[in-house]
Amino acid sequence: MSPDPRSLEGTGLSEAWVDDLVERTLAEDLAGGAVLPGAPDLAVSCDVTSAATVPPAQLGTADLVARAGGVVAGLPVAARVFTRLAPGATLTAGAADGDRVARGDVLLTVRGPVRALLAAERSALNIASRASGIATATRAWADAVEGTGAVVLDTRKTTPGLRPLEKYAVRCGGGSNKRMGLYDVAMVKDNHVAAAGSVAAAVAAVRERAPRVPVQVEADTPAQAVEAVAAGADFLLLDNMTPAQLREVVGLVGGRAELEATGGLTLSVAREVAATGVDFLSVGALTHSSPILDLALDLRAG
């Protein structure tokens, strides 16, 4: 038996979160409160065009197709959009999240009531196109630093309400996640230092109140990096440093703290930065500026 294209196994996405995302996404198209459990006909009827042009009992098959090459992500979530409105639909996977695909490749095939497929079309495409665009951009960065030992990270610069999906898409593209929120890593930045009085005081305060949380300190110069390590930082966020400065920091504190380059990074300099010896490159643009991957739904009637 082929795997269920709706399965979230291995994605790190919770069933409850995905169900909520699907409901919220469909509600944007289907008059909000009309998307109710157990009332798929009511939901579909809110698609006035399909209700007017498609007979209620008409069945069809639709292919989710790549209109451009890239890396796909979010297919299980998109699949659940279709089965939310057409619970009896049959789905066949043509690709899996993380796959490289070419223009014209069929990523998912769905058979069910045509009204439901068309009502779900844009919501499914929005989710998969957004996630796949992030995965595609991340893969370009991961390819650029391949072999250097450095890892590409995302940041918290995500679309409100979509962070789990967008960070999952980064993983699909070969990157890794930094902190998921404000709770899992203590990030001591300049404003925290100003409030606490010094880097050492800020780190000590975190250690006292959250002893199990890793501590990262932002540094703008090699001297600040040395100070942060002396204060007990586990990680350093090396902000807007030149490759020469990054190499200097690696020589001064490498091995005593993990080093993350950030700020103004572009794909054209990714390999040069990675070659300085830093452990990570964090790139906010992965989630805040990646263009979507162009996907479409092609209906085959009958």
From TrEMBL:
Gene3D superfamilies noted in UniProt: Aldolase class I, Quinolinate phosphoribosyl transferase, N-terminal domain
Function: Involved in the catabolism of quinolinic acid (QA).
Keyword Transferase found: yes
Keyword Glycosyltransferase assigned: yes
Pfam families: QRPTase_C (PF01729), QRPTase_N (PF02749)
PANTHER family reported in the protein's UniProt record: NICOTINATE-NUCLEOTIDE PYROPHOSPHORYLASE [CARBOXYLATING]
Domain Quinolinate phosphoribosyl transferase N-terminal: 47-132
GO MF term (any one): nicotinate-nucleotide diphosphorylase (carboxylating) activity
UniProt KW keywords: Glycosyltransferase, Pyridine nucleotide biosynthesis, Transferase
Enzyme class, spelled out: transferase
EC number in record: 2.4.2.19
Organism, scientific name: Geodermatophilus maliterrae
Superkingdom as given in the UniProt entry: Bacteria
Pathway the protein takes part in: Cofactor biosynthesis; NAD(+) biosynthesis; nicotinate D-ribonucleotide from quinolinate: step 1/1
CDD domains: QPRTase
InterPro entries named among the record's database cross-references: Aldolase_TIM, NadC, NadC/ModD, Nicotinate_pribotase-like_C, Quinolinate_PRibosylTase_N_sf, Quinolinate_PRibosylTrfase_C, Quinolinate_PRibosylTrfase_N
Name of the featured protein: nicotinate-nucleotide diphosphorylase (carboxylating)
Homology family: Belongs to the NadC/ModD family.
Residues of the Quinolinate phosphoribosyl transferase C-terminal domain: 134-298
